[in-house]
Amino acid sequence: MSSTTPTAVTAGATGGGPEEPRRPGRISLGGMSLNLRASGIYIAFALIVVLFSILTDGALLTPQNISNIIVQNSYILILAIGMILVIIAGHIDLSVGSVVAVTGGLAAVLMVNMSMPWPLAIILTIAAGALIGAWQGYWVAYFGIPAFIVTLAGMLLFRALTLTVLGNQGIGPFPDQVRTLANGFTPGYLGNVGLGPLGGADLFSLLVALAAIAGMVVSQWRTRAARAGYGQDVEPLALFALKMVAGAALIMFLVVQLARFKNLPWVLVLLAVLVLGYSLLANKTVFGRQIYAIGGNLQAAVMSGVKVKKVVFWIFVNMGVLAAVAGIIFAGRLNQAGPTAGNAFELDAIAAAFIGGAAVQGGVGKVVGAITGGLIMAVINNGMSLIGSPSERVMLVKGLVLLAAVAFDVWTKRRAGAAG
């Protein structure tokens, strides 16, 4: 755990007072101060996309390939949302890959072997994920066993349970509705709109993109105004406007490219709902602030009246629920639940969280950052596959990226400590 107070955690994530002309981890560009710790991940993501776009002669950003990146990595991104909350609270979960496997296997048994209606099977599977999370949360929160040990044991226990449930064989196929959720695309609702050289796009999808852009701008403006109201450091208006324009261009480009292929993947719609919901949970609710407080300074959180055990317990319940959702998506995509499903998923989810800006000691991190970290890993995987790189080289690059992200976090902390 870090030694900062919960208030200091919040300030550190957003910047300090405006009276400080220079702060560790910030650089000045054309008179505008840029927080490297907060913005570095997005700059790195943009540079990686540009690099692989050049190396692949533009194949990375083709409509079909963008769709493939989202669909093929959706379950990792879902896991990353839950993992970032666990890590912010100062814990870790090594069992999520095995939970993905066992919940996917349970869904297959319910839908295929027992012919249970798919909506009821999904509800029961998610409930099973919640029970698994409650099991692990109890040992961590109320019995006091470190999460590393509890979830390491869970990795083995739930993998063994997967083999037992599936009988060491795959079960499928899944109902069409489940496969559509995992691999399908939204139909066109309002007809096609010609976009000149960009090609056509569904009008409904474009309206969704415009709504997303409006929501992003309003949310970021309110956050900026709130920080300014509390006397915290905020970026210059010109830099804020530049960030909004860049974000709007990215959203519109993504939606247009997806619409040119087969329209929006259903898993992207699910991810958008999850990202929005969990961002609001983390940033706008008492429970979210308590998560940051626990990870930032456990003793201060206890003295402030935070019910630490209860919060930690529900964090792991939530992780179990999201692992079950990822298990259903993964099994539906493959159209089969297998005993080896979810292998190393926990490593990708943890890497996504840390690359996305989570601090090793806890107390720092954002849901959007974790999604960005997951997309960085996805782009590296996809881009190196397109240029024909062997798997060992892909693992080498991903390992170096993870190490660089954590090293950057440690470096910025040391600079802040030296300046203080």
Automatic annotation (TrEMBL):
InterPro entries assigned: ABC_transp_permease (IPR001851)
Superkingdom: Bacteria
Compartments where located: Cell membrane
Bilayer topology annotation: Multi-pass membrane protein
Transmembrane segments: 41-62, 74-92, 104-132, 139-158, 195-217, 237-258, 264-281, 311-332, 344-360
Biased composition, class Low complexity, residue ranges: 1-12
Region annotation (Disordered) ranges: 1-24
UniProt keyword list: Cell inner membrane, Cell membrane, Membrane, Sugar transport, Transmembrane, Transmembrane helix, Transport
PANTHER family xrefs: ABC TRANSPORTER PERMEASE PROTEIN YPHD-RELATED-RELATED, XYLOSE TRANSPORT SYSTEM PERMEASE PROTEIN XYLH
Protein purpose: Part of the binding-protein-dependent transport system for D-xylose. Probably responsible for the translocation of the substrate across the membrane.
Name this polypeptide is given: Xylose transport system permease protein XylH
Protein species of origin: Nonomuraea corallina
Gene of this entry: gguB
